[in-house]
């Protein structure tokens, strides 16, 4: 393995993105992922790893490259109000300072993309991946769409960008926001929209205009786990990327497909996450000089978010991956317990990950047939990468 390199971005100011103590989304579990990543970094030679811990608020003009000015005004008003109410139908509350908190996460994504492009090394933005925000509205705990903005900027400079989204929810803000774009290949694995928010992301939704055939939606049924996700990913993603030839890959990783997430019914484990992370980084090396950005995305069980996203960061930075039975650092466990008031996990392996397969390969065959019809192309048979 080559020595660790790349970059990651985190500041505790990202904790300002805070919907209150009773809301399921919290950056506190992303901070625990960062602390775990840093504990691993401290044990290996991370001298070539760049850590960005000062992040400004992205400027208004930059936000307007994806978001409507009227919507930004609405967020700004909410941000300056003491009791702003919801920014959407009832999932995403405004809060004092919500504009700046959101625009800082946007700036983190801009840094991650710019740094990956400049250094030809992967970067990691665990606080980012707010993929439900639309140009003119908040949605699903997402106020500003940090990744869509960063992709628009990279594509505006004439680059082709592959966006891959393995969050349990469909990345509707990114996909519909860039539905016409011929510069953006969007591949999205998610729990079937008939069973989960936001209710979109079907194979027939394959893009429009210059973007026709470049939006690839892979819905999976509730209960789907590694045995569904990993073979489909191996079968679909490499040929799609190789024919598109991106100059940048953005992975919205998510941790809410993990078995045990309270808001979704997928059953992924670190086995498929590790495999997918490694494959995306391999494709990055093969196709675009390792210009790969990995962003955090959703995840609502701190035990899962911390470990799944820490592993994603470990992979992105080229660090040696801990063994499943390796103990977690005592100082980290203390921080977890102080934060959550319950016993911290003891090892990298989650007890929930020890179950058997949850669904059959037949699901994969059916969705591939639907994609072949929608995209007008064929994919290699299963088992041949
Ligand atoms: Zn999600």
Question: How are the SSEs ordered, and which strands pair?
Answer:
Elements: E1 6-9, H1 28-43, E2 49-52, H2 60-63, H3 69-79, H4 98-119, E3 123-125, H5 146-156, E4 161-165, H6 172-177, E5 184-191, E6 215-220, H7 226-244, E7 248-252, H8 270-288, E8 292-295, H9 302-316, H10 330-340, H11 362-375
Parallel strand pairs: 1-2, 1-3, 3-8, 4-5, 4-7, 5-6, 7-8
Helix pairs in contact: 1-9, 1-10, 4-5, 7-8, 8-9
Which CATH architecture is right?
3-Layer(aba) Sandwich
Shape: globular
Helix and strand composition category: alpha/beta
pLDDT below 50 for ≥5 consecutive residues: which ranges? none
How many independent structural domains? 1
Distinct bound molecules:
zinc ion
Q: How large is the share of residues in beta strands?
A: 5-15%
What is the terminal-to-terminal distance? Answer: 23 Å
Keywords:
globular; 385 residues; 11 helices; binds zinc ion; Arginase, Chain A; alpha/beta
Short description:
The chain is of the alpha/beta class. The protein has one domain (6-375): Arginase, Chain A, CATH 3.40.800.20.
What does this structure look like?
The chain is α/β, with parallel strands linked by helices. The chain has one domain (6-375): Arginase, Chain A (3-Layer(aba) Sandwich). It has eleven helices and eight strands. The chain has helices at 28-43, 60-63, 69-79, 98-119, 146-156, 172-177, 226-244, 270-288, 302-316, 330-340, 362-375; strands at residues 6-9, 49-52, 123-125, 161-165, 184-191, 215-220, 248-252, 292-295. Strands 2-1-3-8-7-4-5-6 form an eight-stranded parallel sheet, sandwiched between helices. Helix 1 links the parallel strand 1 (6-9) and strand 2 (49-52). The chain is globular and about 50 Å long. The model has no long low-confidence stretch (mean pLDDT 96). The structure holds zinc ion. Residues 167-169, 254, 256, 298 line the site of zinc ion (ZN).
């Amino acid at each position: 393995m080559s020595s660790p390199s790349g970059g990651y971005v985190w500041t505790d100011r990202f904790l300002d993105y805070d919907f209150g103590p009773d809301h399921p989304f919290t950056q506190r579990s992303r901070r625990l992922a960062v602390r775990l990543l840093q504990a691993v970094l401290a044990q290996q030679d991370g001298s070539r790893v760049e850590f960005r811990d000062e992040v400004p608020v992205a400027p208004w003009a930059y936000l307007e490259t994806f978001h409507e000015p009227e919507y930004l005004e609405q967020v700004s008003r909410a941000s300056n109000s003491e009791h702003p109410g919801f920014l959407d139908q009832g999932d995403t509350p405004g809060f004092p300072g919500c504009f700046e908190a959101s625009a800082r996460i946007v700036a983190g994504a801009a840094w991650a993309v710019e740094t990956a492009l400049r250094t030809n090394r992967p970067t990691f933005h665990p606080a980012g991946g707010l993929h439900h925000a639309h140009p003119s509205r908040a949605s699903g705990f997402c106020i500003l769409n940090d990744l869509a903005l960063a992709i628009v900027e990279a594509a505006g400079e004439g680059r082709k960008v592959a966006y891959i989204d393995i969050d349990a929810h469909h990345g509707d803000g990114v996909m519909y926001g860039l539905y016409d774009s011929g510069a953006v290949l969007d591949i999205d694995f998610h729990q079937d929209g008939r069973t989960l928010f936001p209710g979109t992301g079907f194979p027939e939704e394959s893009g429009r205009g210059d973007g026709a055939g470049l939006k690839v939606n892979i819905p999976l049924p509730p209960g789907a786990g590694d045995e569904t996700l990993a073979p489909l990913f191996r079968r679909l993603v490499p040929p799609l990327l190789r024919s598109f030839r991106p100059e940048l890959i953005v992975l919205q990783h998510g941790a809410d497909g993990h078995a045990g997430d309270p808001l979704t019914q997928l059953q992924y484990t670190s086995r498929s996450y590790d495999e997918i992370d490694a494959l995306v980084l391999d494709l990055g090396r093969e196709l675009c000089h390792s210009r790969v950005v990995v962003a955090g995305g959703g995840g609502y069980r701190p035990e899962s978010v911390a470990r799944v996203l820490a592993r994603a960061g470990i992979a992105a930075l080229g660090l040696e991956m801990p063994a499943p039975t390796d103990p977690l650092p005592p100082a980290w466990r203390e921080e977890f317990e102080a934060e959550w008031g319950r016993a911290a996990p003891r090892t990298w392996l989650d007890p929930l990950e020890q179950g058997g397969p949850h669904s059959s390969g037949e699901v994969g065959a059916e969705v591939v047939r639907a994609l072949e019809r929608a995209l007008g192309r064929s994919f290699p048979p299963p088992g041949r990468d």
